[in-house]
């Protein structure tokens, strides 16, 4: 409980163990995956992107160039930032000491006042983030993660909930994996909003998976991250991670929401529930207004199947996550409805 309120965290992250693939990956695929090792030859938790699949990085590690300061002395600002806890370097000591195990996860929940947490990966966000990945390998990677996170949640199954990683390179394999994971207790799935193999979100390619989410009554969560090698932020902003981090979380989410509203996903899948996570949410009312601005001009000619307004689709099918320190919370709640907002700690 937090201030007398029941707190469900819609986006709490775990830190995958470095030996996850050693323990959980189907042996016939192990030669295609390599991870950093220490002096003892054992896997260790290295920088993001150093896991290689078929010899290729899983994220943009080559672009993660952190530049040195060009000014002497500490950087100073006269304006407080809205909620970063990065300066609080000691707050995660308890988790580091326990190697981010399930006990540490629950301790973190107690620290934040979280009653129930929906868990998302960290390195896993980029694990299958590449076009033209072998679908069977994609499935094996997803199964390894899903089996591990299922076991992780057994430490406190009433409080720790997981969402399935799906092999998006073959939608039918993704459907089968979702069914398997829901039987294990998954409350939904997560997918990055970046396009895979040029399959637009309003493409018929995704229809079986949309329908299955409806039939199983589980959620579809869009979760962006800066480091996918197929992110369109790389050609736009190059190696500067600051540019790409600011842009990716909003722009990729916006294109997904535009496609799902205008493309008729919510019209043809009225019971689909979609969350837009880790992107703040103050952009939502402006985007809905922009779509509505063009409705009179383009709906009849380009989207005659749409029966509702953009706001009506959003109110029926969508939720957008907010972190408690965002200064625009009250204004956004007044524009889209507080009941369309879900809360995220984005721990750790």
SSE layout and pairing:
Elements lengths: L7 E6 L6 H5 L8 E2 L17 E2 L2 E2 L35 H5 L4 H11 L3 E5 L14 H19 L6 E3 L1 E2 L5 H14 L3 E4 L15 H10 L2 E5 L9 H5 L3 H22 L2 H4 L5 E4 L6 H19 L7 H8 E6 L5 H8 L4 E4 L4
Parallel strand pairs: 1-5, 5-6, 7-8, 8-9, 9-10, 10-11, 11-12
Antiparallel strand pairs: 2-3, 3-4
Helix pairs in contact: 4-5, 5-6
Q: Please, what is the CATH homologous superfamily? A: Metal-dependent hydrolases
Helicity range: 25-40%
User: Could you report the average pLDDT, rounded to the nearest whole number?
Assistant: 89
- CATH architect. name: Alpha-Beta Barrel
- The radius of gyration is 20 Å
Structural class, please? alpha/beta
- Kindly give the count of domains: 1
CATH level 3 topology: TIM Barrel
Would you kindly provide a written description of the structure presented here, covering whatever features stand out?
- The chain is of the alpha/beta class.
- It has a single domain (8-37, 49-59, 88-344), classed as TIM Barrel (Alpha-Beta Barrel).
- 37% of the residues lie in helices and 13% in strands.
- The chain has helices spanning 20-24, 93-97, 102-112, 135-153, 171-184, 207-216, 233-237, 241-262, 265-268, 284-302, 310-317, 329-336; strands at 8-13, 33-34, 52-53, 56-57, 116-120, 160-162, 164-165, 188-191, 219-223, 274-277, 318-323, 341-344.
- The protein has a six-stranded parallel sheet with strand order 7-8-9-10-11-12. It has a three-stranded parallel sheet with strand order 1-5-6, with helices on one face. A three-stranded antiparallel sheet has the order 2-3-4, with no helix packed on it.
- Residues 66-73 have low confidence and may be disordered.
